[in-house]
Design goal:
The chain is mostly helical. It is 66% helix and 0% strand. The protein is built from 6 helices and no strands. It is globular and about 35 Å long.
Length: 109
């Protein structure tokens, strides 16, 4: 399935992480993939928003090990960048009233 939301297509996901050499591009690419798969699921209308964002957050939890293995981690800058992209997605798909903390409630970073 391809993404049809024009806001999402134009959005530079995790851009602050790509600009910083501390975060390995290969691992950030995997994080971007998590967000893009979330977009596909939202567009498909498979479940309610929080269930989808919690599942994507759990994927980021698992990605933490890859950051550590690469000498990096999901720390303050990364946490904020990831959370902002979750909030962006909620708004882009019409969930302006979504609770930003609930979107990523299952995070362990």
């Amino acid at each position: 399935m391809s993404i049809s939301n024009e806001q999402v297509i134009a959005h530079p996901f995790l851009k602050a992480l790509y600009r910083d050499d501390y975060y390995p591009d290969a691992v950030v690419d995997r994080g971007k993939g998590i967000l893009l798969r979330l977009c596909e699921r939202i567009e498909a209308g498979l479940a309610e928003l929080y269930a989808l964002t919690h599942a994507a957050t759990d994927e980021f939890n698992a990605l933490q090990d890859e950051f550590w293995a690469a000498g990096s981690e999901i720390e303050t800058v990364a946490r904020e960048e990831i959370a902002e992209d979750f909030w962006f997605l909620a708004g882009a798909y019409g969930f302006a009233d979504a609770d930003s903390e609930e979107l990523i409630a299952t995070r362990d970073w």
